[in-house]
Design a protein that fits this description.
Elements (H helix, E strand, L loop, with lengths): L1 E6 L3 H17 L15 E4 L7 E6 L7 H11 L12 H19 L15 E3 L5 E3 L25
Antiparallel strand pairs: 1-3, 2-3, 4-5
């Protein structure tokens, strides 16, 4: 198990932590076989705000760390990014994408659906057994807004 210590000393921060707990609890409502979705880090419990203003969230421990740490480990092993070696084989990269997609599909399949809104390498954790799991649900939203403007990161190059 791992513990996430969150500063909730201000009322607004306390509301945000309560919101994250509510969303995370929805994600980990027992499935047909029990437990949480296999690609969502399981929230095991949480305590009330302590005297110092912190809330402690207890979750599954993902011993492999986050995806950015795995990229760095692999780069060091292969001589660094400048060496030009691929960090992941196509098969390994496809497994990461499939696991993250499965977690997102679970979120989007809820009623009402949840959007993560903070997908980044640090929020994708490697669990024992090799499964990649989503974590950090503090930016989640139940609102799904269609937009004609895509972030610059997702724009396709002109052809």
């Amino acid at each position: 198990m791992a513990v996430k210590r969150v500063n909730a000393s201000e009322e607004e921060a306390a509301d945000e932590v309560a919101r994250e707990i509510r969303f995370w609890s929805r994600l980990c409502e027992p499935l047909a076989g029990g437990g949480c979705h296999p690609h969502i880090v399981q929230l095991l419990g949480h305590g009330p705000r302590d005297k110092a203003g912190f809330v402690h969230l207890v979750m599954d421990h993902c011993a492999g760390g986050h995806l950015w740490q795995e990229v760095e480990r692999r780069q060091r092993k292969s001589g660094g990014a400048a060496a030009g070696g691929a960090c992941f084989s196509e098969r390994e990269a496809a497994c990461v994408v499939a696991d993250v997609s499965a977690g997102l599909a679970h979120m989007h399949g809820l009623a009402p659906p949840l959007t993560h809104r903070d997908i980044k390498l640090e929020n994708i954790l490697l669990a024992e057994g090799g499964a990649w799991k989503l974590c950090d649900f503090g930016s989640c939203s139940e609102r799904c807004e269609a937009s004609s403007e895509l972030p610059w990161l997702y724009l396709l190059p002109a052809t």
